[in-house]
UniProtKB/TrEMBL annotation:
This is D-xylose 1-dehydrogenase. Pfam families: adh_short_C2. Keywords: Oxidoreductase. GO terms for molecular function: oxidoreductase activity. The lineage of its organism: Bacteria, Pseudomonadati, Pseudomonadota, Gammaproteobacteria, Steroidobacterales. Gene3D superfamilies: NAD(P)-binding Rossmann-like Domain. Transmembrane segments: none annotated. It comes from Steroidobacter agaridevorans. Belongs to the short-chain dehydrogenases/reductases (SDR) family. The keyword Glycosyltransferase does not apply.
């Protein structure tokens, strides 16, 4: 498959959260292919180190893994200081991708569980953005891409907190786009449909569910991680200079 290369992304300093596996790994790989300098934050050591090794041999600018539990705001702040020092300057592109779609019933939710799920699915989007705003202001602009989800648009079952967080991400995207647009910082949300990632295939995939999804999609094929990554790199590039404050669906037309 051929991939578009955007000259404006060459040598850009890019941070991808949750870049060790799934869609995040495809986003890391796509930015590396653009000639960008990529740092990715995750807690999945094995997957992340494997991705580092895999891309080390095949790319001129291999990405670097940083272990960072995004539920900790202190860890986020410390990690961005290290990344900035290692990459030799401010961050140009931030992709807020990390999340966790654990299922639960309404009655199972405790105060502690609510706080924990919001921390893993929503809170770090704001604090990672906060960590790069001054860099982007100093550079005269930048791009922040948040990963949303089609789930709450469809009101899927047993995902109340995840879907609340994902709805919040769209509100946060529009708010940040408004507040940061005057500094040339664009903020967008990419909304994936049902994407064939290792976690989805392991935990939630069934032939019946796949048939149901394909039946509802306009295009009768599964969305792959690279389909989502393609939208992320486009929105990060200067070719998307007038795109901000919106949601961009990559869902094969799931209705
Ligand atoms: N896969 C889908 O079908 C789908 C659909 C809609 C939206 N999305 C969204 O796309 C994004 C990527 O999804 P995915 O399917 O690749 O997810 P995934 O669960 O496969 O990968 C998420 C990554 O985030 C990391 N992560 C989780 N908690 C973390 C923490 N506390 N600190 C640091 N890293 C952490 C994980 O280790 C993992 O590498 C998410 O925002 C997800 O909500 C995915």
């Amino acid at each position: 498959m051929s991939h578009t290369v955007y000259p404006s992304l060459r040598n850009k300093r890019v941070v991808v959260t949750g870049g060790g596996s799934g869609i995040g790994a495809a986003i890391v790989e796509s930015f590396v292919r653009q000639g960008a300098r990529v740092a990715f934050l995750d807690i999945a050591d094995d997957d992340s180190k494997q991705l580092e090794r895999q891309l080390e041999s095949s790319s001129a600018t291999p990405p670097r893994y940083y272990r960072c539990d995004l539920k900790s705001i202190d860890a986020i702040r410390e990690t961005f200081v290290r990344v900035r020092a290692d990459l030799g300057g401010g961050i140009d592109v931030l992709v807020n991708n990390a999340a966790n779609d654990d299922r639960h019933t309404v009655q199972e939710i405790t105060e502690k569980y609510w706080d924990d799920r919001i921390a893993v699915n929503l809170r770090h989007h704001l604090f990672c953005a906060q960590a790069v705003v001054e860099d982007m202001k100093a550079a005269g602009g930048g791009a922040i891409i948040n990963l949303g989800s089609i789930s709450w648009h469809l009101a899927l079952p047993d995902l109340a907190i995840y879907q609340t967080a994902k709805a919040g991400i769209e509100g946060l995207t529009r708010s940040l786009a408004r507040d940061l647009g005057t500094f040339g910082i664009r903020v967008n949300c990419v909304v994936p449909g049902g994407v064939r990632t290792p976690r989805q295939m392991k935990l939630w995939h069934t032939p019946d569910e796949e048939a149901r999804m394909l039946g509802l999609q306009c295009i009768k094929a599964r969305v792959e991680p690279h389909d989502v990554a393609n939208m992320v790199v486009f929105l990060s590039s200067d070719d998307a200079r007038m795109c901000t404050g919106h949601e961009y669906f990559v869902d094969a037309g799931w209705r």
